[in-house]
Every structure is written in C-alpha cells, then in structure tokens.
Specification:
- The protein is an alpha/beta fold and 246 residues long.
- The chain has 8 helices and 9 strands.
- It has 2 domains: 1-213, 3-Layer(aba) Sandwich (Glycerol-3-phosphate (1)-acyltransferase); 216-245.
- The protein has helices at residues 2-18, 45-51, 64-67, 70-82, 93-109, 135-143, 191-209, 218-245; strands at 21-23, 34-38, 57-62, 85-88, 113-116, 128-129, 147-153, 172-175, 213-214.
- Keywords: Acyltransferase, Coiled coil, Transferase.
Length: 246
C-alpha cells in the first residue's frame, strides 16, 4: 500500500512535470519475474523507469540512503523504500557484489521485477561503459529470468552536476525485447560465460540508447577524470605560485 501511494504521488508528479516518453512497454511481462538491465545516466533513472511501469521494480541502493540520521535522513529512507529501492551494504567491493546478487535472486524468486545497472555506477560523460560481469549475469543464470535491455534517454540533461534546479525537458525510455540466456543454465561459475552474457546485454542497450560505447569500466573512467582534474588544479596552483613570486 505504501509503495502504491508513493508511486502515485511521485510517479504522478514526474509524469505531469517532465512528460517522459516510453517505447517498448509491451516487452515488460504483465506477471512473473524479469530483470531490467539499464544504462545509468542520472540519479533520477531509478525514479523515471518505475514511474512508467504498472509493476513494481526493485533496484539496489546504497545502505547509507536508509541509515542517515535526522529528519532529512528519515525522509530520504522513506522515499527510497516507497519507490522500491532495496538497501545493500556496499562496504567492501566483494561483499557488496554478493549482497546485491543475493538480493536480486530473492526479488526474482518472488516473481517480481529486478532493476540493475550493469555499468555499476553512473556514466561520467553520457557514454555507455563496459558492463560488470558479476551481478546481472549471475542473477540471470541462477534464476533463468529473462533480461530486458533498457535505455534511459537524456535523463542526465535534466539536472547536470552543479545545477540546483532541474531543467524541464522530456526524457525517454526504450525497453527492448527480452533476452533468453537459458542455454547457459548452471554455468554461472564460468567467467567467460558471465562476460559473454553481460556483453550481449550491453550491446542491446547500446543499440537502444544510441550511446557511444567505451570498453572500460565507468569506475576506472571516473578515476581517470578525477586524476586529470586534480593534475589540472595542481598545475594551475603551481602557475599562480610562480606568478606571485615573480
């Protein structure tokens, strides 16, 4: 009931304000489990996609969103629970991955929709990055659930980094036809199979989104961007230092 009320209020507000368009709704099963594997452009992706579906979609979220103290923290926790986010302790990369996989399998076993971002984090520049072979592929092979590739369109343009007020524009969602990986049943321990499944899904997301594909992980790209920015600032500081000493 709480989910329904939250979806009605939040989803209704998103639809009214931003008027998102969606293609491929007919590919989402009316009942039974499925995995929605989406590109990740914005924090708002986890809200726009559930808002446009009749069924509940459960995504994985950082546990900190549910445990922050204070009034704001409680409101944030209530909001994330209300829109179907599932808290997972991500302290320690391996533990985080195992927790997310278990959570995803549990959602699928309940016959529900599980949402996951194979890139593992938001794209730093709007391009599509290499999918991580753990979560998505292992949940798919362990459960036999179909995988629906999903492309979020222009959500990163609504509220770019550093902007407080969102831009009123129409984001889009494209949902592809379900992918069946039953031919790999029982092979979720084979890293080459996991890589193959993940790459196949990422290829379908690329076709739906029209994004440029980059064959590196988004986390590595973010580190490279951060290192480059740090180097730029250090160079500017050194330049200013020389100027002041001249």
């Amino acid at each position: 009931m709480f989910y329904g009320a939250m979806k009605l209020s939040v989803g209704g507000a998103l639809k009214l304000t931003f008027r998102p368009w969606v293609e491929g709704l007919e590919n989402v099963p009316a009942e039974g489990p499925a995995i929605l594997a989406s590109n990740h452009l914005s924090f708002s992706d986890s809200f726009f996609l559930p808002a446009m579906l009749d069924r509940k979609v459960t995504f994985i979220a950082k546990q900190e969103y549910f445990t922050t103290p204070g009034v704001k923290g409680r409101l944030t926790a209530a909001f994330f629970k209300g829109v179907g986010q599932l808290p997972v302790d991500r302290s320690g990369s391996r533990g985080a991955g195992e927790a997310a996989i278990k959570a995803g399998i549990d959602v699928i076993k309940r016959g529900e929709l599980f949402g996951i971002y194979p890139e593992g984090t938001r794209s730093p520049d709007g391009r599509l990055y290499r999918g991580k072979p753990g979560g998505l592929a292992r949940v798919a092979l362990a459960t036999g659930a179909p995988v629906l590739p999903v492309a979020m369109i222009d959500t990163e343009k609504i509220q770019p980094p550093g902007k407080v007020m969102p831009k009123l524009m129409r984001p889009g969602i494209r949902i592809g036809k379900p992918l069946d990986f039953s031919r790999y049943h029982g092979m979720d321990g084979d890293r080459f199979i996991l890589r193959s499944v993940t790459d196949e899904v990422m290829y379908e997301i690329m076709k739906l989104s029209g994004q440029e594909y980059v064959d590196v992980y988004a986390t590595a790209a973010k580190r490279q961007i951060a290192d480059a920015e740090a180097a730029r600032k250090a160079a500017e500081k050194e330049k200013d230092k020389h100027k002041s000493g001249a």
